Amino acid sequence: MVDYRPIPDERDVFHEYRSYAFRPEEGVPAYDPDEHERPRATLGSRRGVYETDEADDAEPRCVCRHYWLESRVREEGHRTAGLASVATPPEYRRRGYVRQLLARSLAEYRDRDIRFCVLWPFSYRFYRRYGWDTCNRIVTHECEPSVFSFATDAVDRDAGSIRRLEADEFGSLTPAYEAHADRYSLSLEREEDWWRYRVFGGHERDPFVYAYERDGRVRGYLVYTIDGEMGDRTMAVSELASIDHEATLALLSFCHDHESQVERVRLRVPAGVPLRDLARDPDEIETVVENGPMVRIVDVAATLSALSYPDLDVSTTIAVEDPLVEWNEGVFELAVAAGQADCTRLDGRSNAAADADVRLEIGALSQLVVGFQSAEALERTGRIETAAPEARAVLSTLFPQTDVYLGDRF
Protein backbone atom coordinates (compact mmCIF):
# COMPACT_ATOMS: atom_id res chain seq x y z
CA MET A 1 0.00 0.00 0.00
CA VAL A 2 1.10 3.54 -0.68
CA ASP A 3 0.11 6.93 0.66
CA TYR A 4 -0.59 9.70 -1.87
CA ARG A 5 -0.16 13.20 -0.49
CA PRO A 6 1.12 16.74 -1.13
CA ILE A 7 4.85 17.51 -1.01
CA PRO A 8 5.01 20.79 0.91
CA ASP A 9 8.42 20.52 2.59
CA GLU A 10 10.47 18.26 0.32
CA ARG A 11 11.07 20.61 -2.56
CA ASP A 12 14.73 19.64 -2.70
CA VAL A 13 13.71 16.01 -3.24
CA PHE A 14 11.21 17.02 -5.94
CA HIS A 15 13.96 19.05 -7.63
CA GLU A 16 16.36 16.09 -7.46
CA TYR A 17 13.86 13.59 -8.91
CA ARG A 18 12.80 15.92 -11.69
CA SER A 19 16.37 16.88 -12.65
CA TYR A 20 17.49 13.25 -12.84
CA ALA A 21 14.42 12.18 -14.82
CA PHE A 22 14.43 14.92 -17.46
CA ARG A 23 17.99 16.32 -17.62
CA PRO A 24 20.35 13.61 -16.35
CA GLU A 25 23.10 14.73 -18.75
CA GLU A 26 23.40 17.94 -16.73
CA GLY A 27 23.74 16.14 -13.42
CA VAL A 28 21.65 17.22 -10.45
CA PRO A 29 22.46 20.83 -9.57
CA ALA A 30 22.37 21.66 -5.90
CA TYR A 31 18.94 22.84 -4.79
CA ASP A 32 18.79 26.62 -4.45
CA PRO A 33 15.40 28.08 -3.40
CA ASP A 34 16.22 31.43 -5.02
CA GLU A 35 16.94 29.72 -8.34
CA HIS A 36 14.60 26.74 -8.32
CA GLU A 37 11.56 28.22 -6.57
CA ARG A 38 10.92 31.22 -8.78
CA PRO A 39 7.22 32.01 -9.48
CA ARG A 40 7.18 29.91 -12.65
CA ALA A 41 8.35 26.85 -10.71
CA THR A 42 5.80 27.27 -7.92
CA LEU A 43 2.72 27.18 -10.14
CA GLY A 44 0.70 24.04 -9.60
CA SER A 45 0.71 21.51 -6.76
CA ARG A 46 3.30 18.83 -6.02
CA ARG A 47 2.23 15.30 -5.13
CA GLY A 48 4.04 12.09 -4.24
CA VAL A 49 3.42 8.47 -3.28
CA TYR A 50 5.05 7.06 -0.16
CA GLU A 51 5.24 3.61 1.34
CA THR A 52 2.81 3.57 4.26
CA ASP A 53 4.94 1.25 6.42
CA GLU A 54 7.92 3.62 6.49
CA ALA A 55 8.71 6.59 8.71
CA ASP A 56 6.94 9.88 8.04
CA ASP A 57 10.21 11.48 6.95
CA ALA A 58 10.88 8.84 4.25
CA GLU A 59 11.38 10.07 0.72
CA PRO A 60 8.59 9.70 -1.86
CA ARG A 61 8.84 6.83 -4.32
CA CYS A 62 7.37 8.83 -7.21
CA VAL A 63 6.36 12.48 -7.71
CA CYS A 64 4.34 14.69 -10.05
CA ARG A 65 2.90 18.17 -10.40
CA HIS A 66 -0.73 19.15 -11.04
CA TYR A 67 -1.74 22.37 -12.78
CA TRP A 68 -5.32 23.46 -12.13
CA LEU A 69 -6.57 24.77 -15.48
CA GLU A 70 -9.68 25.36 -17.55
CA SER A 71 -9.96 24.44 -21.21
CA ARG A 72 -12.59 24.90 -23.90
CA VAL A 73 -14.27 21.76 -25.18
CA ARG A 74 -17.32 21.96 -27.44
CA GLU A 75 -17.29 25.77 -27.02
CA GLU A 76 -17.64 25.66 -23.24
CA GLY A 77 -15.12 25.86 -20.42
CA HIS A 78 -14.37 22.74 -18.41
CA ARG A 79 -12.06 22.21 -15.45
CA THR A 80 -8.90 20.52 -16.65
CA ALA A 81 -5.80 19.19 -14.89
CA GLY A 82 -2.35 19.50 -16.41
CA LEU A 83 -0.18 16.58 -15.28
CA ALA A 84 3.57 17.16 -15.38
CA SER A 85 6.94 16.24 -13.86
CA VAL A 86 6.10 12.57 -13.29
CA ALA A 87 9.42 11.23 -12.04
CA THR A 88 10.68 8.14 -10.25
CA PRO A 89 14.33 7.65 -9.25
CA PRO A 90 15.90 4.50 -10.76
CA GLU A 91 16.06 2.64 -7.46
CA TYR A 92 12.24 2.68 -7.23
CA ARG A 93 11.33 1.91 -10.83
CA ARG A 94 9.42 -1.14 -12.13
CA ARG A 95 7.50 -1.51 -8.87
CA GLY A 96 4.18 -0.01 -9.98
CA TYR A 97 4.61 3.36 -8.29
CA VAL A 98 3.80 5.39 -11.42
CA ARG A 99 0.62 3.43 -11.98
CA GLN A 100 -0.47 4.12 -8.42
CA LEU A 101 0.46 7.79 -8.71
CA LEU A 102 -1.61 8.16 -11.89
CA ALA A 103 -4.62 6.34 -10.44
CA ARG A 104 -4.54 8.38 -7.23
CA SER A 105 -4.14 11.58 -9.25
CA LEU A 106 -7.27 10.74 -11.24
CA ALA A 107 -9.11 10.10 -7.98
CA GLU A 108 -8.11 13.56 -6.75
CA TYR A 109 -9.22 15.10 -10.05
CA ARG A 110 -12.56 13.33 -9.73
CA ASP A 111 -13.03 14.67 -6.21
CA ARG A 112 -12.35 18.18 -7.58
CA ASP A 113 -14.95 17.78 -10.38
CA ILE A 114 -12.25 18.00 -13.05
CA ARG A 115 -13.35 16.74 -16.46
CA PHE A 116 -10.12 16.28 -18.43
CA CYS A 117 -6.44 15.63 -17.80
CA VAL A 118 -3.79 16.71 -20.33
CA LEU A 119 -0.06 16.01 -20.37
CA TRP A 120 3.03 16.25 -22.58
CA PRO A 121 4.44 12.70 -22.69
CA PHE A 122 8.03 11.54 -22.74
CA SER A 123 6.62 8.41 -24.45
CA TYR A 124 3.23 8.08 -26.15
CA ARG A 125 3.27 4.32 -25.81
CA PHE A 126 3.83 4.59 -22.05
CA TYR A 127 0.83 6.83 -21.36
CA ARG A 128 -1.45 5.04 -23.82
CA ARG A 129 -1.14 2.03 -21.52
CA TYR A 130 -2.90 4.10 -18.87
CA GLY A 131 -5.66 5.61 -21.02
CA TRP A 132 -4.26 8.89 -22.36
CA ASP A 133 -4.08 9.53 -26.10
CA THR A 134 -3.01 12.22 -28.56
CA CYS A 135 -5.28 15.26 -28.68
CA ASN A 136 -3.69 17.36 -31.46
CA ARG A 137 -0.80 17.61 -33.88
CA ILE A 138 2.00 20.16 -33.70
CA VAL A 139 3.23 21.55 -37.02
CA THR A 140 6.70 23.09 -37.18
CA HIS A 141 7.79 25.05 -40.26
CA GLU A 142 11.45 25.99 -40.69
CA CYS A 143 12.97 28.12 -43.42
CA GLU A 144 15.20 31.08 -44.17
CA PRO A 145 13.68 34.46 -43.23
CA SER A 146 13.60 35.46 -46.90
CA VAL A 147 10.78 32.97 -47.49
CA PHE A 148 8.50 35.35 -45.58
CA SER A 149 9.03 38.13 -48.12
CA PHE A 150 5.57 37.40 -49.50
CA ALA A 151 4.11 38.77 -46.25
CA THR A 152 6.20 41.94 -46.41
CA ASP A 153 5.04 42.55 -49.97
CA ALA A 154 1.39 42.03 -49.02
CA VAL A 155 1.11 43.91 -45.75
CA ASP A 156 0.26 47.61 -45.48
CA ARG A 157 2.90 48.88 -43.07
CA ASP A 158 1.10 52.16 -42.56
CA ALA A 159 -2.00 50.38 -41.27
CA GLY A 160 -0.40 49.18 -38.05
CA SER A 161 2.78 48.89 -36.03
CA ILE A 162 4.81 46.30 -34.12
CA ARG A 163 6.11 46.81 -30.60
CA ARG A 164 7.57 44.74 -27.79
CA LEU A 165 5.41 44.11 -24.72
CA GLU A 166 6.37 43.50 -21.10
CA ALA A 167 4.58 41.12 -18.74
CA ASP A 168 2.59 43.96 -17.13
CA GLU A 169 0.88 44.49 -20.48
CA PHE A 170 -0.45 40.93 -20.76
CA GLY A 171 -4.03 42.18 -20.61
CA SER A 172 -3.70 43.89 -23.99
CA LEU A 173 -3.07 40.49 -25.61
CA THR A 174 -6.27 38.93 -24.31
CA PRO A 175 -8.56 39.84 -27.27
CA ALA A 176 -6.10 38.40 -29.79
CA TYR A 177 -5.60 35.27 -27.70
CA GLU A 178 -9.36 34.84 -27.20
CA ALA A 179 -9.96 35.07 -30.95
CA HIS A 180 -7.24 32.47 -31.50
CA ALA A 181 -8.48 30.21 -28.70
CA ASP A 182 -12.08 30.33 -29.93
CA ARG A 183 -10.96 28.39 -33.01
CA TYR A 184 -9.60 25.40 -31.09
CA SER A 185 -10.89 22.82 -28.67
CA LEU A 186 -8.72 22.32 -25.54
CA SER A 187 -7.31 25.86 -25.68
CA LEU A 188 -6.66 27.11 -22.15
CA GLU A 189 -8.35 29.93 -20.29
CA ARG A 190 -5.29 31.90 -19.21
CA GLU A 191 -5.12 33.65 -15.85
CA GLU A 192 -2.67 36.39 -14.93
CA ASP A 193 -0.05 34.08 -13.39
CA TRP A 194 -0.09 31.90 -16.51
CA TRP A 195 0.52 34.92 -18.72
CA ARG A 196 3.29 36.25 -16.50
CA TYR A 197 5.18 33.06 -15.71
CA ARG A 198 4.38 30.67 -18.60
CA VAL A 199 4.02 33.00 -21.61
CA PHE A 200 6.25 35.95 -20.72
CA GLY A 201 8.48 33.81 -18.48
CA GLY A 202 10.85 31.04 -19.55
CA HIS A 203 12.77 28.26 -17.82
CA GLU A 204 16.25 29.73 -18.23
CA ARG A 205 15.52 32.95 -20.14
CA ASP A 206 12.43 34.92 -20.91
CA PRO A 207 11.16 34.99 -24.50
CA PHE A 208 10.43 38.07 -26.57
CA VAL A 209 6.76 39.01 -26.93
CA TYR A 210 5.91 41.38 -29.79
CA ALA A 211 2.43 42.60 -30.68
CA TYR A 212 0.93 43.94 -33.89
CA GLU A 213 -1.32 46.92 -33.17
CA ARG A 214 -3.92 48.46 -35.47
CA ASP A 215 -6.29 51.30 -34.57
CA GLY A 216 -4.81 51.36 -31.07
CA ARG A 217 -5.54 47.71 -30.30
CA VAL A 218 -3.50 44.51 -30.38
CA ARG A 219 -4.60 42.44 -33.37
CA GLY A 220 -1.98 39.72 -33.03
CA TYR A 221 1.25 38.75 -31.32
CA LEU A 222 4.08 36.26 -31.34
CA VAL A 223 6.31 34.72 -28.66
CA TYR A 224 9.84 33.69 -29.60
CA THR A 225 13.46 33.20 -28.59
CA ILE A 226 16.66 33.63 -30.57
CA ASP A 227 18.61 30.37 -30.30
CA GLY A 228 22.18 29.50 -31.31
CA GLU A 229 25.34 31.50 -31.84
CA MET A 230 26.11 34.31 -34.27
CA GLY A 231 26.23 32.91 -37.78
CA ASP A 232 23.88 30.05 -36.88
CA ARG A 233 20.94 31.72 -35.18
CA THR A 234 17.31 30.59 -35.29
CA MET A 235 14.27 32.66 -34.46
CA ALA A 236 12.13 30.05 -32.67
CA VAL A 237 8.47 31.14 -32.56
CA SER A 238 6.51 29.13 -30.00
CA GLU A 239 3.21 30.99 -30.32
CA LEU A 240 1.55 33.07 -33.01
CA ALA A 241 -1.98 34.36 -32.46
CA SER A 242 -3.96 36.76 -34.62
CA ILE A 243 -7.45 38.09 -35.01
CA ASP A 244 -7.43 38.26 -38.80
CA HIS A 245 -5.42 37.51 -41.92
CA GLU A 246 -3.90 41.00 -42.05
CA ALA A 247 -2.46 40.55 -38.56
CA THR A 248 -1.04 37.14 -39.53
CA LEU A 249 0.74 38.70 -42.50
CA ALA A 250 2.12 41.51 -40.33
CA LEU A 251 3.58 39.00 -37.88
CA LEU A 252 5.11 36.88 -40.65
CA SER A 253 6.57 40.07 -42.14
CA PHE A 254 8.11 40.75 -38.72
CA CYS A 255 9.86 37.38 -39.01
CA HIS A 256 11.14 38.48 -42.43
CA ASP A 257 12.54 41.64 -40.81
CA HIS A 258 15.03 39.43 -38.91
CA GLU A 259 16.75 38.42 -42.15
CA SER A 260 19.97 40.25 -41.20
CA GLN A 261 19.98 38.79 -37.70
CA VAL A 262 19.08 35.09 -37.99
CA GLU A 263 19.70 32.33 -40.50
CA ARG A 264 16.50 30.39 -39.88
CA VAL A 265 12.96 30.91 -38.59
CA ARG A 266 11.24 28.02 -36.83
CA LEU A 267 7.50 28.48 -36.51
CA ARG A 268 5.42 26.20 -34.24
CA VAL A 269 1.71 26.52 -35.09
CA PRO A 270 -1.60 24.62 -35.39
CA ALA A 271 -1.99 22.50 -38.50
CA GLY A 272 -4.60 24.89 -39.87
CA VAL A 273 -2.22 27.85 -40.28
CA PRO A 274 -1.79 27.90 -44.11
CA LEU A 275 1.86 28.94 -44.35
CA ARG A 276 2.69 26.60 -47.21
CA ASP A 277 -0.31 27.88 -49.16
CA LEU A 278 0.70 31.51 -48.63
CA ALA A 279 4.39 31.18 -49.42
CA ARG A 280 5.73 31.70 -52.94
CA ASP A 281 8.39 29.06 -52.30
CA PRO A 282 6.79 26.27 -50.23
CA ASP A 283 9.56 23.94 -51.39
CA GLU A 284 11.95 26.08 -49.31
CA ILE A 285 10.02 25.28 -46.13
CA GLU A 286 10.82 22.20 -44.07
CA THR A 287 7.60 21.09 -42.39
CA VAL A 288 7.43 18.50 -39.61
CA VAL A 289 4.15 17.19 -38.20
CA GLU A 290 4.35 15.62 -34.74
CA ASN A 291 2.00 14.32 -32.10
CA GLY A 292 1.28 16.98 -29.50
CA PRO A 293 -0.03 16.55 -25.95
CA MET A 294 -2.31 13.77 -24.72
CA VAL A 295 -5.76 13.91 -23.14
CA ARG A 296 -7.85 11.68 -20.91
CA ILE A 297 -11.39 11.87 -19.57
CA VAL A 298 -11.34 11.74 -15.77
CA ASP A 299 -14.91 10.50 -15.15
CA VAL A 300 -16.98 9.26 -18.10
CA ALA A 301 -20.41 9.72 -16.52
CA ALA A 302 -19.69 13.20 -15.13
CA THR A 303 -17.91 14.45 -18.24
CA LEU A 304 -20.45 13.24 -20.80
CA SER A 305 -23.24 14.69 -18.65
CA ALA A 306 -21.53 18.10 -18.54
CA LEU A 307 -20.81 18.63 -22.25
CA SER A 308 -22.91 20.67 -24.63
CA TYR A 309 -24.61 18.81 -27.50
CA PRO A 310 -26.60 19.55 -30.65
CA ASP A 311 -30.31 20.22 -30.13
CA LEU A 312 -31.77 16.74 -30.64
CA ASP A 313 -33.31 13.83 -28.73
CA VAL A 314 -31.24 10.65 -28.84
CA SER A 315 -29.79 7.97 -26.59
CA THR A 316 -27.01 5.43 -26.97
CA THR A 317 -25.09 2.93 -24.85
CA ILE A 318 -21.31 2.98 -24.74
CA ALA A 319 -19.11 0.18 -23.37
CA VAL A 320 -15.83 1.64 -22.09
CA GLU A 321 -12.61 -0.11 -21.14
CA ASP A 322 -10.32 1.73 -18.72
CA PRO A 323 -6.99 0.16 -17.68
CA LEU A 324 -6.51 2.41 -14.65
CA VAL A 325 -9.70 3.31 -12.75
CA GLU A 326 -12.77 1.18 -12.12
CA TRP A 327 -15.37 3.98 -12.24
CA ASN A 328 -14.87 4.30 -16.01
CA GLU A 329 -15.10 0.57 -16.67
CA GLY A 330 -18.49 -0.63 -17.86
CA VAL A 331 -21.48 0.35 -19.97
CA PHE A 332 -22.84 3.88 -19.90
CA GLU A 333 -26.15 5.14 -21.19
CA LEU A 334 -25.97 8.62 -22.71
CA ALA A 335 -29.33 10.33 -23.18
CA VAL A 336 -29.48 13.73 -24.88
CA ALA A 337 -32.58 15.91 -25.05
CA ALA A 338 -32.78 19.56 -26.16
CA GLY A 339 -29.01 19.91 -25.92
CA GLN A 340 -28.83 18.64 -22.33
CA ALA A 341 -27.39 15.26 -21.40
CA ASP A 342 -27.49 12.65 -18.70
CA CYS A 343 -24.92 9.86 -18.62
CA THR A 344 -25.20 6.99 -16.15
CA ARG A 345 -23.34 3.75 -15.68
CA LEU A 346 -25.49 0.65 -16.06
CA ASP A 347 -24.73 -1.84 -13.30
CA GLY A 348 -25.90 -5.41 -13.02
CA ARG A 349 -26.81 -6.03 -16.65
CA SER A 350 -25.62 -9.38 -17.99
CA ASN A 351 -23.83 -9.20 -21.33
CA ALA A 352 -24.20 -5.41 -21.22
CA ALA A 353 -20.90 -4.79 -23.00
CA ALA A 354 -21.77 -7.18 -25.80
CA ASP A 355 -25.17 -5.53 -26.22
CA ALA A 356 -23.87 -1.95 -26.17
CA ASP A 357 -24.28 0.25 -29.24
CA VAL A 358 -20.61 1.29 -29.08
CA ARG A 359 -17.48 -0.32 -27.62
CA LEU A 360 -14.16 1.50 -27.22
CA GLU A 361 -11.28 2.26 -24.86
CA ILE A 362 -11.07 5.40 -22.72
CA GLY A 363 -8.30 6.91 -24.88
CA ALA A 364 -10.40 6.65 -28.04
CA LEU A 365 -13.43 8.06 -26.24
CA SER A 366 -11.32 10.99 -25.04
CA GLN A 367 -10.21 11.77 -28.59
CA LEU A 368 -13.80 11.55 -29.82
CA VAL A 369 -15.15 13.83 -27.09
CA VAL A 370 -12.62 16.65 -27.54
CA GLY A 371 -13.05 16.49 -31.31
CA PHE A 372 -9.63 15.27 -32.42
CA GLN A 373 -10.92 12.05 -34.02
CA SER A 374 -14.26 11.36 -35.66
CA ALA A 375 -16.26 8.18 -35.07
CA GLU A 376 -15.57 7.21 -38.69
CA ALA A 377 -11.81 7.65 -38.30
CA LEU A 378 -11.76 5.63 -35.09
CA GLU A 379 -13.74 2.85 -36.75
CA ARG A 380 -11.38 2.76 -39.75
CA THR A 381 -8.42 2.23 -37.44
CA GLY A 382 -10.18 -0.47 -35.43
CA ARG A 383 -10.42 1.58 -32.23
CA ILE A 384 -14.18 1.61 -32.00
CA GLU A 385 -16.81 -1.03 -32.59
CA THR A 386 -20.41 -0.16 -33.37
CA ALA A 387 -23.38 -2.50 -33.36
CA ALA A 388 -24.85 -0.86 -36.47
CA PRO A 389 -24.18 2.06 -38.85
CA GLU A 390 -26.92 3.98 -37.02
CA ALA A 391 -24.85 3.88 -33.81
CA ARG A 392 -21.87 5.40 -35.58
CA ALA A 393 -24.12 8.09 -37.07
CA VAL A 394 -25.37 9.00 -33.58
CA LEU A 395 -21.79 9.39 -32.33
CA SER A 396 -20.87 11.51 -35.34
CA THR A 397 -23.79 13.82 -34.62
CA LEU A 398 -23.12 14.07 -30.90
CA PHE A 399 -19.34 14.46 -31.25
CA PRO A 400 -18.46 16.08 -34.58
CA GLN A 401 -14.77 16.41 -35.37
CA THR A 402 -13.36 19.88 -34.75
CA ASP A 403 -10.04 21.72 -34.71
CA VAL A 404 -8.07 20.93 -31.55
CA TYR A 405 -4.91 22.70 -30.44
CA LEU A 406 -3.29 22.84 -27.03
CA GLY A 407 0.08 24.50 -27.49
CA ASP A 408 0.83 25.57 -23.90
CA ARG A 409 3.67 23.52 -22.47
CA PHE A 410 3.90 22.76 -18.77
From TrEMBL:
GO terms for molecular function: aminoglycoside N-acetyltransferase activity. GO terms for biological process: aminoglycoside antibiotic catabolic process. Residues 2-155 form the N-acetyltransferase domain. It comes from the Archaea. InterPro entries: Acetyltransf_17, Acetyltransferase_Eis, Acyl_CoA_acyltransferase, Eis_dom, GNAT_dom, SCP2_sterol-bd_dom_sf. Keywords: Transferase. Pfam families: Acetyltransf_17 (PF17668), Acetyltransf_9 (PF13527), SCP2_2 (PF13530). PANTHER family: N-ACETYLTRANSFERASE EIS. This is GNAT family N-acetyltransferase. It comes from Natrinema ejinorense.
